[in-house]
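Help needed: design a sequence for this.
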């Protein structure tokens, strides 16, 4: 938390994205990136630094986000189909990367919380599949607990590489981890057209 304040980030979550990028080389100058569940905006700040002004960054959340220079901000819920439509209108073209740090409000009941975070990750993936360009990437927070198997099966079908990571910035005792999927195969292959 102290480091985040010193470095000017809105929360310590910034370091999770920095560590994921260090490990997987996700972020590049000039990319188009959608940041889901972006509030308060620390991942968006990292994206703005690395992707830079030549790229396009769209931060999406149900909560309000204070403006971040050079980034577009959209209020919307990933569970709503209207949000995907609004993202498409805002971006005018395919996306290189969709990142999601969304987590539900914890109930304290582990199984319930796990099911809810997987549902959010699945909604984020559904949205990503509608906007990603072939070769694009997807990152989402999940909690370990078993029901992520369906999510992983879909990711393995839709992306060439799927990996798990727990950034050092995650608390040691937490079940939090991230799925990192790269090499999006594109929707046309799943529709069985046989092209490409």
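Sure. Designed sequence:
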């Amino acid at each position: 938390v102290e480091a985040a304040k010193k470095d000017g980030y809105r929360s310590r979550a910034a370091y999770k994205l920095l560590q994921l990028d260090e490990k997987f080389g996700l972020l590049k100058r000039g990319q188009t990136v959608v940041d889901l569940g972006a509030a308060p905006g620390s991942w968006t700040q990292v994206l703005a630094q690395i992707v830079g002004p030549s790229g396009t960054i769209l931060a999406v959340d149900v909560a309000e986000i204070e403006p971040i220079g050079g980034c577009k901000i959209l209020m919307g819920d990933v569970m709503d189909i209207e949000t995907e439509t609004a993202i498409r209108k805002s971006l005018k073209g395919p996306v290189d990367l969709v990142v999601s740090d969304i987590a539900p409000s914890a109930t304290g009941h582990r199984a319930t919380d796990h099911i809810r975070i997987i549902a959010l990750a699945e909604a984020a993936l559904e949205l990503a599949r509608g906007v990603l360009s072939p070769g694009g990437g997807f990152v989402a927070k999940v909690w370990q607990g078993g029901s992520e198997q369906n999510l992983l099966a879909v990711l393995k079908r839709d992306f060439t590489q799927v990996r798990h990571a727990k950034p050092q910035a995650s608390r040691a005792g937490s079940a939090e981890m991230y799925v990192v999927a790269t090499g999006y195969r594109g929707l046309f292959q799943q529709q069985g057209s046989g092209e490409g």
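The first helix runs from residue 2 to 7.
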